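G., before I forget:
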Amino acid sequence: MAEAALRPVVPFLKIPASGDPYLEGQKCGACGAIFLDERDTCSKCGKSGAIEKKKLSNRGELYVYSIVHRSFPGIEVPYVSAIVDLEGGGTVKGNLINIQPDPAKIKMGMPVEVIYKVAPRKDRDGNEYLTYYFQPRS
Amino acid sequence: MSDVFIVGIDMTKFQKAGTGPAVDVLGAQAARMALDDCGLKIQDMQALYCGNLGQANAMVGQRVLQQIGQTGIPVVNCANACATGATAFREAWMAIKAGVYDLVLAVGVEKMGSGLLGGGGGGGGIPKEGLLGSGTMPAVFAEAGMEHARKYGTTFEQFAKVSVKNHHHSTMNPKSMYRIETPLEMVMNAEMIAYPNTKLMCSVNVDGSAAAVLASEKKARELGLMKRAVRVKASVMTSDPWQERDLVMPDVNTCTRLAAKKAYEMAGVGANDVDLVELHDCFATAEILHYENLGLCGDGEAGKLIDQGETAHGGRVPVNMSGGLLSKGHPLGATGIANVYEVATHLRGEAGERQVAGARIGLTHVIGLGSACAIHILEKSA
């Protein structure tokens, strides 16, 4: 029995047939703005038909964060909700892991990296998903 | 073009979410109160603009008229996230400004659920909340506050002081949901929801409504209503210009700065001329950002402004004398008109013990997520 393929948690997480997963942005060839969703027209400059795919870096720095203590039933807290600026462009939101959820330990501007793991949740059909996290980078 | 005046305005006492009457009955309460405030009848109104979010597809404005008089006037129902009420008010203003009508009613009403807003996710696959960060409002506005902390070193304590102040103000407002003092240690030690926002630093879900009767100058004079009338000196709305972190971080700053600049220009006044402000303190972190966005102080000075008490009752520019969304409560569709009620009440000199002495010019501000901003500048007419 063939093993079911992992699905990406979001469409901008790409799982190539061979090689490592990565995040893919959509870059406007006219003004350089970067988006995470597929689109035809740039919402910064309005140019159509100039959007190019851009592989985003797995390295970045923590821009800002919040430590979430109250969430919906079934969601484990506390966790760190983080906004990360990637090297070379693109800003992505995700959970920052492998760090204590303590404001004294989390430094805005600290270097982080994107890592990929099987998500701890399945969909109602039992499918598994590949997700991304951020972790401190030395 | 005629100047536009608020001749009647009122709001219900905000009450715990889920305890209010049906949305049409609740909206009708404020509508009647606003009409009574200026001694006019629904038969005098030429149009109704109604703001409501929770039942945006269910003709709330027409149902309000079913409660107070179905006179056949045009009704426009508005939805614009937390800027919904201000949008309805502004549409009413615009209709008079355009010369189409002389007397228009604006109503904002909301019945709220309890608990967290936002973070619902959407899209297929598995839920993203708590896996790819948080989309809940406390976390989103916590992150917006942390941007200020990153730039200027703003502290948890400074954010918390906003909540201390607004709760204090609400003790003087009989229409506020909560009217309790919350000392700094109580705010900081309350349940942490999303650092740095504790439970007492999050707005309160309430049921409430607010309504205003707007009139052209000619009609206000003709009806002898100028004595308590409040002039709308500026009405401005913006959406969010593109920003590089937009996709993951709603930007409440840029649209507010853009609206503030336009509003001051339209009113012909500067931030220094403003005697009081009701701004969108959906979370304590947000109020700090808006001090600078509205030009109440320079960039990086908001922490000092709250530390020195300049935005408290008796300070240089009192902010959220009503208790704000943090204590008075935040019924999404009503908030934008309730803010106008608060400022108008001070300009009329009718705010009782919380009156800002000598108030002549006031400003109201709301934000709908990060993508709608409405600012009104109001002036005492007499």
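Chain A has a mean pLDDT of 95. DSSP finds no helices and ten strands in chain A.

More on Monday.
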